[in-house]
Amino acid sequence: MFPRYRQKTIRAKTGVAVLAAVAVLVAILSLFLLSERNEAKEIVDTFYRYEQAGDFGSSWELFHPLMKTKFPKDVYIQRRAHIFMQDFSAETFEYHLDEVEHLSSWSMSDKQKPFQDVYRIRVIQTFHSVFGVFELHQDVFVAKKNGKWSIVFSYNS
């Protein structure tokens, strides 16, 4: 048998090893979630860079398949251009990505089944138009489909 002080040393080393393993696991999980958060934010940023440039066809490509069903590409391009450029008389806009929040479950509408592991990103667009300067605040959601992040808008009441 080991003397008592050897047993205490072995227990202490085992405890330190377990704590170190837990710390490494927490660090890996944090990096994974941070990486996903950054990926979600990047796709929203790319979407609004396209929108800002008036490239509504490229922004439409970043939509989730459910959004593409809701808005066929030609309809989306026409409506977006009409609203921003004709109705608002705004050539472009500035935008700011605000809050980023991870949601374990979220649904696009009451009629759709929930997505798992979604990110909600608050987007603030500032327009300089014939109606003056105004801001549009919208929560944009990012969900994975077949391993690829895509944009979803909310249609919940």
Q: What key attributes describe this structure?
A:
single chain, 157 residues, alpha+beta, Nuclear Transport Factor 2, Chain: A, 4-stranded antiparallel β-sheet, 4 helices, 31% strand, elongated, NTF2-like_dom_sf, transmembrane helix, transmembrane
Provide a short characterization of the protein structure.
The protein is α+β, with helices and mostly antiparallel strands and 157 residues long. 48% of the residues lie in helices and 31% in strands. The chain has a 4-stranded antiparallel beta sheet.
What do you see in this structure?
This protein has helices spanning 4-52, 56-61, 65-70, 73-87, and strands at 93-106, 115-129, 132-145, 148-153. The longest helix has 49 residues, at 4-52. It has a single domain (14-153), classed as Nuclear Transport Factor 2, Chain: A (Roll), CATH 3.10.450.100. It is elongated and about 85 Å long. With 157 residues, the chain is an alpha+beta fold.
